């Protein structure tokens, strides 16, 4: 199954939908194209891999229950090599599956049945944050802390060893918010407003999961974090000294 609508424009965002239900796929593709996006739908991991070898996309909408390789496995695999925003769209709506989806690297998690306008709003939100115009961004110079370098424009995180570290959109936005506010206690609600990282579930749980994943990637000792301190009844504080590169 391949459903696609191509618009000849270099500025139009391109969305890949991995969904084996033809009716849902057709509906989502139509909705996306009506909202000015390019959309391609495939029905399996194999179909996704084949089209990704030929084309690039700005966002992936991924069903969890697919024939062959399931969506959770696909999400893990995509995140290992790419920072592309991922929205999981699935009938598995319980809290555990939501958290698993986020932990594997999904940026958002929407359950079926879903309202088309909600899905469209979340897709546009992720695309907007991923391509936020330079002229509208605060503090655009690259920054460094404890040997790490973070570049708001290129959206890259580089370790002290010079290794580019893969991050989800939400993880990068949270770390960037910390770097722009070092030494300041930031509540979960503030992080939510700055990063929109709570779209995939309850605000506190979603923020905590993303912060935990950021810690796993930057902390010298994850069991005793020193970079991102938890402030009781407050939120979090980023402790390293942050300087412009």
Q: If you had to describe this structure to a student in words, what would you say it looks like?
A:
- This protein has helices spanning 22-34, 45-52, 71-81, 95-103, 116-130, 169-180, 188-195, 203-218; strands at 2-5, 14-18, 38-42, 59-63, 86-90, 108-111, 143-145, 148-151, 156-158, 164-165, 185-186, 228-231, 235-238, 243-244.
- The chain has 245 residues and is an alpha/beta fold.
- It folds into two domains: 2-130, 3-Layer(aba) Sandwich (Rossmann fold); 137-244, Arc Repressor Mutant, subunit A, CATH 1.10.10.
- The strands form three sheets. Strands 1-3-2-4-5-6 form a six-stranded mixed beta sheet, sandwiched between helices.
The CATH architecture assignment of the largest domain turns out to be 3-Layer(aba) Sandwich
Distance between the termini: 48 Å
Instruction: Report the biggest beta sheet as strand number plus sense, adding barrel if it closes.
Output: 6 strands, mixed
Average pLDDT reading: 84
Tell me the β content: 15-25%
| Alpha-beta classification | alpha/beta
CATH class category label of the largest domain: Alpha Beta
The shape is globular
Query: What is the CATH H-level superfamily of the largest domain?
Result: Response regulator
Largest beta sheet: what is the strand line-up?
1-3-2-4-5-6
Count every helix, treating DSSP H or I runs of 4 or more residues as helices: 8
Number of separate domains:
2
Can you write the helix and strand succession as a string?
EEHEHEHEHEHEEEEHEHHEEE
> What percent of the residues sit in helical stretches (DSSP H or I)?
25-40%
Question: What is Rg?
Answer: 18 Å
- DSSP, total strands: 14
Kindly identify the CATH topology of the largest domain: Rossmann fold
């Amino acid at each position: 199954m391949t459903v696609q609508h191509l618009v000849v424009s270099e500025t139009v965002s391109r969305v890949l939908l991995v969904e084996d239900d033809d009716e849902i796929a057709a509906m989502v593709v139509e909705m996306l194209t009506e909202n000015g996006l390019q959309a391609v739908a495939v029905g399996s991991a194999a179909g996704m891999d084949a089209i990704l070898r030929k084309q690039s996309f700005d966002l992936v909408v991924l069903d969890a229950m697919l024939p062959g390789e399931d969506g959770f496995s696909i999400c893990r695999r995509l995140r290992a090599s790419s920072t592309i925003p991922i929205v999981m769209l699935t009938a598995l709506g319980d809290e555990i599956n939501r958290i698993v989806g986020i932990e594997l690297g999904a940026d958002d998690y929407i359950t079926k049945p879903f309202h088309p306008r909600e899905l469209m709003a979340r897709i546009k939100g992720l695309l907007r944050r991923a391509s936020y115009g330079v002229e509208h961004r605060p503090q655009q110079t690259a920054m460094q802390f404890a040997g790490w370098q973070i570049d708001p424009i290129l959206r890259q995180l580089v370790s002290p060893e010079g290794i580019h570290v893969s991050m989800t959109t939400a993880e990068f936005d949270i770390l960037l918010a910390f770097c722009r506010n070092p030494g300041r206690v930031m509540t979960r609600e503030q992080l939510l407003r700055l990063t929109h990282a709570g779209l995939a579930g309850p605000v506190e749980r979603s923020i905590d999961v993303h912060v935990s994943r950021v810690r796993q990637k930057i902390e010298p000792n994850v069991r005793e974090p020193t970079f991102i301190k938890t402030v009781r009844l407050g939120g979090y504080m980023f402790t390293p000294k942050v300087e412009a590169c």
